[in-house]
Amino acid sequence: MPSRRLFPFLLLAPLLGCGRPTPGDPYDPAWRYPLRPDPVVLKAADTHPAGPILDGDRDGYLAGLPARGGRLLDPTALPADTRQRLTEVLDDLFGTPAEPKVAVGDPTQLAALALDADTLKASSGGYRMRCGTCHGLTGDGRGAAGLYLVPQPPRDFRHGQFKRAGGAGIASGKPRFDDLMRVLNEGVPGTMMTAFSPVPEATRRGLVGTVIHLSVRGEVEQELLKQAADPDESATDWAAEGKRLTMAVLRKWAAAQADGPPPIAVPDRPEAPTPEYHESLRRGFKLFATAGCLSCHEGYTRRNVYRSDPSGLPNGVRNLGHPERRWGPDGADTARQIRHGIAAANMPGSPGLSDAEVVDLVNFVRELAYPKRLPDDVRAAVEQ
Ligand code: HEC
Ligand code: HEC
Prior knowledge:
The chain is mostly helical. It has helices spanning 7-15, 58-63, 80-94, 107-112, 117-130, 132-135, 177-186, 201-228, 238-256, 275-290, 331-340, 355-367, 376-382, and strands spanning 40-43, 71-73, 306-308, 314-316.
């Protein structure tokens, strides 16, 4: 029996023409990763259109961005010879879809991140079969189905930031290898990112390697494009610069594998709220306003409120009235997000709060989906 989380994907698969893919179906050896054609956001918009923002209209959103105070870099406007040169440099560093590689870096570190050429080559067909439909050939989140997903478009790996980063990279959104494995094991509840737990573990490790490969490639590409668009940089040795940037991004991935900050212990939810638990919910309710949460989580449980993520694209502020937590059901996961923020969603952390205050907030947030469990006075204020 496929797991319930896999079910929506199975429904989608035949629609998208990938009903009976051949396992390991390789890419055509002639294919190259194209140089990024979509705009790089240099400055995010100051305001967002009133929601809902249609995910299918990402290009429309970007086209309207300059009028709302944002700034874009159009890679297709770069001179043809520069584009050609950058494509060659990226091909040399990262290979092709059929023969992906990371050409620089310490082999032991590369192997630990499943970035060795053998693993990448063995996984590219699996990525094409299972992930590319949504996440796209280059990991841009613009696969055939990727533009039309609600409530969240697929993650664009090219920005190098992930929401479920729980290790030493928590503040910058760089995940541990195991954070990404967890995403594949559990999916992202409440989005179209399904769990791939039935896929054998070795295959999942390879798919995570492919995600990291595309992410490193995308980050280097984005930086090269920014430099190429800067007239002062026109004489740059692009091959040397590509290598330097790749080494720098790999160093960040390596550093992010270390342990993160210690977890905050959160007691289980009581079966029936006790008077002490009600007091904690009251404190959490007050903190939610004073700690600035309401400035984004407007109206506690409203939908269609957007903030820009670090890539400059609109990201829905989570409707906390939804019972499922996207980044893990444990109170400790929620506590970590409240203390340290979600870098990839531009949600700031609250380092000034004590552990007890964070626990009050966790309790309050997780009861928002069950308003009958809130004290009457809090419930009245929340439901206004
Ligand atoms: C049906 C579309 C779809 C498919 C197929 C799909 N994803 Fe996703 N993926 C998503 C969506 C939607 C998100 C959630 C993005 C968000 O909340 O920012 C996501 C998020 C992710 C994330 C980011 C998690 C984080 O911490 O930010 C990773 C990594 C990922 N997917 C990997 C994969 C891999 C690997 C495959 C193939 C085995 C795959 N996805 C298949 C739609 C899909
Ligand atoms: C600058 C805007 C902003 C502020 C301020 C903010 N958040 Fe968030 N929050 C977000 C966004 C955006 C997300 C969605 C993350 C995602 O895409 O998965 C989010 C997600 C969350 C989640 C995860 C929900 C889930 O289903 O996984 C929790 C819990 C949360 N916020 C609690 C808080 C609390 C408590 C505060 C105050 C201490 C706070 N937030 C302040 C923007 C903000």
